[in-house]
Amino acid sequence: MSTVQFAATKIIRDLETRFFVDFNREVRINEVIASNKMTRSFGLAEKNMFGSVRKIKLSNKAFEGKTNTKAFYKTVVHEFCHHAANVMNGSWDHGIMWAALMQHFGESADRYVTEEQKLEANHINRRIQLKYRFNCGCRYHYVSATIKNRILSGATYRCKACRGALVAPTR
Q: What is the mean pLDDT of residues 51-66?
């Protein structure tokens, strides 16, 4: 068992216990996989079509030797919350239930890797693409660095739903 698997399993068992105590529902992660092939994301939640086998895959290249970082903990919680939301209401996306569970476990409900998380993790293949948050009149949009730079240079991108221009959020 790699250090990534060991550390993640410890966190997951704690989350399973907290979830059961707080919601009286059981989520059991059957397998934690530390994959050397994951270069596009930090983590992935998987289940079989019946939901009886639940797995969490983590990027071994990103987290080897970095299992005590905030980025690692947040990634494990992020993937666990997919499974927990699925148990609670059948959803598997980054919806309201997933976001509520992320906040319940003390993490922000960001869907993408932040610059801080990327710096905390090992510098793996540059394929892990940062997403930047912009907003229009109706919601938040996550865009690539290329689109972000174009918007900041004066290009206009519009929301398909409200037709509002995407603007950078004020800090």
A: 87
Rounded to 10 deg, the angle between the 70-89 and 3-23 helix axes is: 40
Q: Is 8 exposed, middle or buried (0-12, 13-18, 19+ CB in 10 A)?
A: buried
Give the separation between CA 29 and CA 52, rounded to whole angstroms.
Answer: 9
Amino acid at the residue 35: S
Residues 6 or more apart whose Cβ sits within 8 Å of residue 169: 133, 134, 135, 140
CA distance 56 to 151: 36
142/22 Cα distance (integer angstroms):
32
Which DSSP helix (H) or strand (E) runs through 97?
Answer: helix 96-104
pTM value > 0.85: no
132 near 148, Cβ under 8 Å? yes
